Amino acid sequence: MGDHFEKGQHALLNEGEENEMEMFGYRTHSCRKTLCLAGSVFSFGILPLVFYWRPAWHVWANCIPCSLQEADVVLLRTTDEFQTYSRKKITWIHLSALNSAFGLTPDHPLLADEEYIINRAIRKPDLKVRSIKVQKIRYVWNNLEGQFQKIGSLEDWLSSAKIHLKFGSGLTREEQEIRRLICGPNTIDVEITPIWKLLIKEQSVKLHGLVASHNSITVSVCGRQAGVQELESRFLVPGDLLILSGNKVQMPCDAVLIDGSCVVDEGMLTGFNTAKGDLVRSILYPKPMNFKLYRDAIRFLLCLVGTATIGMIYTLCVYVLSGEPPEEVVKKALDVITIAVPPALPAALTTGIIYAQRRLKKKGIFCISPQRINICGQLNLVCFDKLPGSPQLCLGQGFAMGPAVCCHDSCHSLVLLDETIQGDPLDLKMFEATTWEMAISGEDFHIKGVPAHAMIVKPCKTASQVPVEGIAILHQFPFSSALQRMTVIVQELGGDQLAFIKGAPEKVASFCQPETVPTSFVSELQIYTTQGFRVIAVAYKKLEMDNHTTALTRDKVESDLIFLGLLIFENQLKEETKPVLEELISARIRTVMITGDNLQTAITVARKSGMVSEDQKVILIETNETPGSSSASISWKLVEEKKHIAYGNQDNYINIWEEDSDNSREGSYHFALSGKSFQVINQHFSSLLPKILMNGTIFARMSPGQKSSLVEEFQKLDYFVGMCGDGANDCGALKMAHVGISLSEQEASVASPFTSKTPNIECVPHLIKEGRAALVTSFCMFKYMALYSMIQYVGVLLLYWEINSLSNYQFLFQDLAITTLIGVTSKPFLKLSSYTCFPQIFFACGNPVVPASI
Q1: CATH, residue 561
Q2: How does it sit in the membrane (predicted)?
Q3: How many CB atoms are located within 10 Å of the residue 320 CB?
Q4: Are residues 603 and 624 in the same domain?
Q5: DSSP per-residue codes, 768-803
Q6: Is the pLDDT at 17 greater than 80, yes or no?
Q7: How many CB atoms lie within 10 A of CB 312?
Q8: Among 601, 595, 611, 621, CA closest to 682
Q9: How confident is the model at residue 31 (pLDDT cuts 50, 70, 90)?
Q10: How many other CB atoms are found less than 10 A from the CB of residue 292?
Q11: What gap in Å lies between CA 723 and CA 745, rounded to an integer?
Q12: Which of 65, 354, 416, 834 is the most exposed place for a label (fewest CB within 10 A)?
């Protein structure tokens, strides 16, 4: 009914983003609204209840379609598989109060630049703005472009130079007031749910307290006229000039650094938005789940509603024929509905989830989406973004002082904070291996080309060889998972400017001068990777001193490099890794490795950890794609025997399971492939992909996007997929999985519904156990509630025949005392069993119908 719209009546909101929605324009129709009000009265409130659960029906019944420009109500529909509807009223923001205060006139733009969305959103001459609020984000109507646009942030088209020019001296008082009125406060208000809603929804008191503490941060704001002021963060507006002073400052909003330098903890950042806002929104508006238990529960409830309707008609007949007063007849008839369809059923179903969540918290596992605890009980495949370990530099001692050591100690993202070196653990191990020191240049630092407050690394005072006095880090091209490398521009104190690069050996070697790469490069690399070592290549080149570092492009810096060598790390598995994987495998839960490391390294780690047993073979899948052509080929290679099986896209079919009859048994071999091969297979050999995934265990050199695609492909094979990672390069996969587990020191991460403060995979079996306990508890509670409601239903109808009923205390004991005991006493079993609970509501709850009919 909402699919046929003319141009201007339909638009996309947040196009291309995760929360993309379709928007339909409607205008309230007075006659329809009057009929709906009458229907609400004559249905004794049932119609408003239906409209509450079906907002699309509410809009279709009360409104008529119209253009978005004329609409007073919009109907939103998500573009995902669930297509969830929501209804939003369009409100008007009046700026007339500011007209008298600041002498604003409709003839001139209220802000300095006419290109601002705010200027385009103000309707003149009455100075009003049309707006809607969706998931705590405000959108205003752009009168020129004829669409709703997100407000509350700086415009994307502003360049760095324009930001300096327009906001470098702060905002005027009237600009602040206009932006504050239109954009709203810089807060997310979490309403405390009323008591009547708590019966069907989760409590939000704790979340309200969590967010309220972050809404009252005091910040220093520099205004163009008022100077520096101390304000609460909720009064901030886009364009305000903040002054950051001191250490460990909490940022209450997104910001652009226009002067000075700062270090940002990116542990919870996932992109362009402040993590706190995304985190709270993900809790308030969780992604819907297509869970069979819930679908069956709704269908069974509809059956109970039909049964209740029959009982209500029976009650009306009995009490009317017996001559009871009308109010008594209505009361008894409504009692039958609450007996057949227990109001406590939603609360009873969440009892197991609540207590499971509390037990998980005691184990250091935090949850922002409690509904997913039940899904944990059905996991049958868990993906790991490499297995946690402690990196140890194996071949770093005894380096000859020279470019290799300089690259080793300067090409990193480490920072000096509170006299402590902090940063990536692998970078930290590399830096500590040569016992160099780190410092920050002061204001009196006068060396050509080295700015004040630059990061400087230098040999320790006890070093026997000192090739350079120190190295100043001038510019960084940060590490990127897609590029698989990072680069820095440095300057030797009193010497040359250099460029250092480190990253994946294959990538780094491709940027080096061919004559500098040893002929034994490939064989040496394979020797170390097959032993499970993590290998990083380093290279460098000299730069001309006249070049301005910020003007150099990455492509220009990363060319004609001189190859320096390989850094070898041993990623020692933690003690708990192997027992956890053995427990999962014994419970018939598949384990898969999805990593960005070298393929040979991943295969060795999989064997050491027990993910691949000694008697199982690993088949390496390699692809070859001709550039600019649609042709591609696949080859299979037994890693131990070097046996090749070729397959090109010109062939119709190949069944590799017939190549070796001994390997045809399920689980007797594992496939290993790189991200590039996965992409080629997905593009050219999509019919083979499901067969490969059924035995695919090792996926290496995977980009973040490929990780998400792989998780999605596993889900298409009807797996319940769990993803365990550190939340850095696997945010997409953590969100895509049915259950995402982030190993982080934070209590909650926006990247996934579950976060473990202990950075190891011991949390995975704990989570599955609690999930199974919560799932079985919910299942048993549903069976019990359905059974006792039917028994109570039949008993009450028999008593009604005698114009009698149960007492209030009897109802109270049955509804609360017995029900609560079942939910509280259901704890998880100590060991993961190979049996997985796949509850069937209709099969199990068919039994209560038998005693009810008797």
Answers
A1: 3.40.1110.10
A2: Multi-pass membrane protein
A3: 12
A4: yes
A5: HHHHHHHHHHHHHHHHHHHHHHHHHHHHHHHHHHTT
A6: no
A7: 17
A8: 621
A9: very high
A10: 12
A11: 17
A12: 834
Question: In whole angstroms, what is the distance from residue 558 CA to residue 437 CA?
Answer: 27
Q: Does the residue 33 lie in any domain?
A: yes
Do 566 and 612 fall within a single domain? no
Domain extent for 464: 393-573
Claim to verify: residue 142 and residue 21 sit in the same structural domain: yes
Nearest to 388 by CA among 609, 672, 604, 700: 609
Within a domain: residue 816?
A: no
* Number of domains comprising the chain: 3
Q: What is the pLDDT, as a whole number, of residue 393?
A: 58
- Element spanning 340, H or E: helix 326-340
| 8 Å CB contact between 486 and 478 | yes
Q: Using CA atoms, how far apart are residues 467 and 305, in angstroms rounded to an integer?
A: 84
186: which residues sit within 8 A by CB, 6+ positions away?
Answer: 233, 234, 235, 236, 237, 252, 253
Model pTM score: 0.70
pLDDT, tens digit, 9 for 90 and up, residues 678-729:
988 888 888 889 989 998 999 998 888 888 889 989 998 989 999 988 766 6
Domain with residue 618: its CATH number is 3.40.50.1000
CA–CA dist 651, 649 (Å, integer): 5
pLDDT average, residue stretch 370-384: 87
User: Same domain for 555 and 597?
Assistant: no
Instruction: Please state which of the ranges 221-225, 258-262, 806-810, 843-847 shows the lowest mean pLDDT.
Output: 843-847
pLDDT band at 201 (very low <50, low <70, confident <90, very high): very low
Residue 213: which H helix or E strand, with range? helix 205-214
From the DSSP assignment, how many helices (H) and strands (E) are in the chain?
31, 34
Q: Determine the Cα–Cα distance for residues 102 and 124; give it in Å rounded to an integer.
A: 17
Of 23-37, 88-102, 132-146, 431-445, give the range with the top mean pLDDT: 23-37
Q: Please give the DSSP secondary-structure letter assigned to residue 832.
A: -
Same domain, 24 and 134: yes
Which range, 394-408, 451-465, 838-852, has the best average confidence (pLDDT)? 451-465
Which of residues 742, 762, 782 is at a domain's end?
Answer: 762
Nearest to 229 by CA among 238, 237, 219: 219
569 and 612 co-located in one domain: no
User: What gap in Å lies between CA 285 and CA 287, rounded to an integer?
Assistant: 7
Please state the separation of Cα 217 from the chain's center in Å.
Answer: 26
Statement to judge: residues 514 and 602 lie in one domain: no
SS3 825: coil
Domain C-terminal end among 713, 740, 762:
762
Please give the angle made by the CA atoms of 362, 366 and 372, to the nearest 5 degrees. Answer: 115
> Mean pLDDT score of the chain, rounded to an integer?
76
Asked if residue 738 and residue 639 are part of one domain, the reply reads yes
Instruction: For residue 517, count other CB atoms closer than 10 A to its CB.
Output: 19
Domain-embedded: residue 774: no
Question: How many Å apart are CA 168 and CA 289, to the nearest integer?
Answer: 46
Question: What whole-number percentage of the chain has pLDDT above 70?
Answer: 73
Return the pLDDT at 554.
86
Peptide bond before residue 125 is cis, with ω within 30 degrees of 0: yes
Query: Which residues have a catalytic role annotated?
Result: 385
Among 39-53, 458-472, 634-648, the range with the most confident prediction by mean pLDDT is: 39-53
In this structure, is residue 850 part of a structural domain? no
Determine contact, residues 227/171, Cβ cutoff 8 Å: no
From residue 351, alpha-carbon distances to 113, 661, 773, 781 in Å are 55, 51, 11, 9
Q: What is the rounded distance in angstroms from the CA atom of residue 732 to the CA atom of residue 740?
A: 10
